[in-house]
Specification:
single chain, 15% helix
């Protein structure tokens, strides 16, 4: 499976982080009813993202060899994005998510 990680501006759709275009070290895990994303990145690369930190969406696109791409959309709430300059780590906490396969979703409309 191949995975793509995106952090986008919720309103304008502008991508701040897109591992499909530029590799970034990241990990995520579910902690109780939340998902915690940890991204290793220097502040210069995310300065613009931090200006819009209360208006972000996170996506994971999972590409499988013999199946359609599965997209997972994580909803990021207020005060859920924090950056530690000392560690070079961005933390994003999502409170909910929805997973879907675009081909199946559009067929249901």
């Amino acid at each position: 499976m191949k995975e793509q990680f995106l952090v986008k501006h919720a309103v304008g759709g502008r991508a701040f982080i897109d591992t499909g275009k530029q590799p970034v070290e990241y990990m995520y895990k579910q902690v109780e009813d939340r998902w915690v994303f940890t991204v290793r990145i220097d502040k210069e690369r995310i300065a613009e993202l931090l200006k819009w930190k209360d208006e972000l969406n996170v996506f994971i696109f999972q590409e499988f060899e013999n199946q359609p791409t599965r997209k997972v959309w994580f909803y990021v709430g207020d005060d859920a994005v924090h950056y530690s300059e000392e560690q070079g780590e961005l933390k994003i906490i999502a409170g909910s998510q929805i997973a879907y396969v675009p081909e199946q979703f559009s067929a249901q409309l």
